[in-house]
Amino acid sequence: MQKHKKMPIHVAIIMDGNGRWAKEKGKNRAVGHKQGVEAVRSTIKHSSNLGIQYLTLFSFSTENWLRPKMEVNILMRMFSRLLDSEINELHKNNVKVCFIGRRTKISSILRKKMERWEEITTNNTGLNLMLAIDYGGRQEIADACRKIVIDNLNPDNVTTDSITEHMYKPDMPDVDLLIRTANEKRISNFLIWQSAYAELFISKVYWPDFNEDEFDRALEEYSQRKRNFGKVT
Q: Of 16, 18, 128, 176, which one is the catalytic site residue?
């Protein structure tokens, strides 16, 4: 396990390339998604071992509902099986699990499993694992604005802090390091409020091939970056 000079508090990852990984190997997209689950397990374990406090994984976006219905159904079944198979191990390793997103289109069965995960792990004090499902950054900001209107907040009191207080997880710190795989160079509506000052790392590997070595490469590059947040030092 590699130690780094400066560790990010919050790492967020856009897990891209499952389908292309499968296509290059002559397999269907479902195989790529299944292999991607192994990369998820490895990344969670490595984050926990390194002492990273927050890890947010872009698991299913609001735009992903536009994919073929069969693929969406496969992904939802995979989420459901994953929740059944991993909860005990995560709980044993002191991982706290939270879900961010709207949940309105998610089946009641899967939604109950998500709520159960959050309840079981609520008192854990290790890695905070944030799973973004049915999530969109613009949608989160719109939902925050809707809550502000409902709370009848005085316009003079609408600040960046008050907006943050109305986000899905207001106690979640801003993203320090945002990783995207498959050599794609966009943030795709992911944590756009929380990533305002995030350091970006573009990995050329497809998500199923993302391993501890590639993760360490991202962390090492992050440790060498100077973060001034607009100030002159």
A: 16
